[in-house]
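Field reference: sequence -> structure
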Amino acid sequence: MSTLAGKTLFITGASRGIGLAIALRAARDGANVVIAAKSGVANPRLPGTIHTAAAEVEAAGGKALALKCDIRDEAGVQAAAAQAAERFGGIDIVVNNASAIWLAGVEGTPMKRFDLMHQVNTRGTFVVTQACLPYLKQAANPHVLMLSPPPSVDPKWFAPHTAYTIAKMGMSLCVLGMAAEFAPLGVAVNALWPRTVIATAAIAMIDGVRAEQCRRPEIVADAAHAILTRAARDYSGHFAIDEDVLRETGMTDFDAYAVAPGSPLLPDLFLD
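Structure field:
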């Protein structure tokens, strides 16, 4: 399968950044895209809402459903999944993209930030996947994709920001467990992480990072597309890196993804 035409994707945090890029790549195939995010009203500090994202999806050739959804709210997530399935006749793919970030040490991390990251990153991933699972079980080629890094217990990734690292690794541990649990069901569960820092609103959280040192979100979107069009029973439990995925498709030139082609790129967190 090389297209997502007619497939229904439930994407969290899809009002901007990587989530929106994945939505637009699927839309170009003619997919149905559920924009599940909190951004119902424009924020002067952050571009994009669920409504502007839905309009972009429609303009790109897909069908969109904008759902204001806080993934910390279990009942709200269940209702959103049901509404998505009712609108499009099911759910084929879940992309757990929503994430909260706070890059600080123990003393510099307020507990409200600790709680937010764990509620959104690890718990939110679990809640969304759980709510969508009944529909995935009925799909022809069901996939769950987490935007999370390869699991690691290397102290160098924990020491600078223990709370954030635990929360992101929690998403990755969901991949380990769910891939094994869902294997008999034929539901693929994989993770995808960028080789370099991606130019999104989150880079403002990383000291010293400039946009010209980053790639655009489209590289992650193209890699996600390559994963989500694979046979679910043949590809599950992987911790993929965007550049590696695209190299497997035959791509060798990645300059088009650079914000400033030719400028040195910074590796993303959790990668050596």
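Note: The two ends are 33 Å apart (CA to CA).
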